[in-house]
């Protein structure tokens, strides 16, 4: 089979770096070009990412030089607001696009304006964009021109909520999402908040009740529930490089127990290669999924407070970004879904 020709825009960031790493061993795809901002323009791959020395060399080009010619798929790993201006050109030229930024995730352009403080300039594409949470929207992906890759927090929050919402087992006004992420989720750009001396030996909440991933989570869980849902979402920054742990709290609509819940979750995700529901006596750890495209979760029922607790972990840069993007690419082009994503977790 002829390999897919793939371009990566915004390739010098963490998501771009992970895409290069994953695609380097993908049997059905190869990187045609890498695009970046002015800082890394003209540099060779190993100069920007020394750990990727040995991967076929590419020179980082300016985004203005991005060419659709001979390219089957473009991954957009650019800051929010960039993809919306350039994606229509790629689509018109016949390229498929997987956007790892937030530009096509929200179906309501007014919500994008509100939460991202910028006007959406391609609202006509929002209905076409498939929300690429693969496990829930797989049937919509084959042949899709435009995929909106989910955010890391939404991925780790929606997957644990899906079974209980689709089964009608959770009170929709009781959902609380306590989220913790490593600092790589903030990107590679310099930022005082993610400076080593600011984050080490510290734990901090940020943007409670106003984080930009809130409307994305609410949009998708409302689809699952069949009615509008509001959630309480509080993210936290933890002093580690990568990894994300989510604890979801929800009041049940009837009496449950941990054994029944675990069975429901295992049945729901039984055929999913990248979601693992743990036994009743095990709890997820971020190290268990480090470097992988897996989401690991467990579910508990607390009879004392009558609360369902679901804990999920992902690697925010893989299942939360680039790994899921490759998973979506595989489904869009009807390739084996695990291709390029079969590596085991790193430990310790």
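^ Assign residues to that structure.
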């Amino acid at each position: 089979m002829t390999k897919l020709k793939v371009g990566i825009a915004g390739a010098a960031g963490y998501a771009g770096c992970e895409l290069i790493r994953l695609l380097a061993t993908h049997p059905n795809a190869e990187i045609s070009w890498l695009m970046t901002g002015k800082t890394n323009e003209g540099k060779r791959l190993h100069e920007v990412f020394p750990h990727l020395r040995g991967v076929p060399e590419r020179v980082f080009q300016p985004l203005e030089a991005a060419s659709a010619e001979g390219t089957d798929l473009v991954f957009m790993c650019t800051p929010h607001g960039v993809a919306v201006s350039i994606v229509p050109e790629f689509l018109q030229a016949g390229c498929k696009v997987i956007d790892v930024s937030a530009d096509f995730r929200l179906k309501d352009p007014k919500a994008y304006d509100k939460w991202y403080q910028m006007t959406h300039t391609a609202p006509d594409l929002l209905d076409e964009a498939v929300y690429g949470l693969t496990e829930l929207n797989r049937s919509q992906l084959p042949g899709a021109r435009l995929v909106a890759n989910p955010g890391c927090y939404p991925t780790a929050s929606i997957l644990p909520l899906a079974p209980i919402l689709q089964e009608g087992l959770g009170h929709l006004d009781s959902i609380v999402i306590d989220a913790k992420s490593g600092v790589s989720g903030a990107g590679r750009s310099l930022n005082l908040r993610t400076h080593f001396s600011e984050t080490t030996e510290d734990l901090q909440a940020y943007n409670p009740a106003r984080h930009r991933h809130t409307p994305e989570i609410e949009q998708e869980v409302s689809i699952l529930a069949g009615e509008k849902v509001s959630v309480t979402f509080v993210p936290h920054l933890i002093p580690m490089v990568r990894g994300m742990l989510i604890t979801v709290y929800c009041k049940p609509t009837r009496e449950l127990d941990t054994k029944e819940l675990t069975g429901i979750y295992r049945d729901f995700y039984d055929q999913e290669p990248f979601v693992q529901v743990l036994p009743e006596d095990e709890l997820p750890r971020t190290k268990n999924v480090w470097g992988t495209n897996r989401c690991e979760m467990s579910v508990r029922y607390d009879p004392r407070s009558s609360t369902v607790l679901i804990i999920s972990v992902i690697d925010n840069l893989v299942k939360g970004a680039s790994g899921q993007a490759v998973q979506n690419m595989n489904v869009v082009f009807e390739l084996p879904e695990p291709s390029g994503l079969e590596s085991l977790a790193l430990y310790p």
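The domain at 4-128 is CATH 3.40.50.720 (Rossmann fold).
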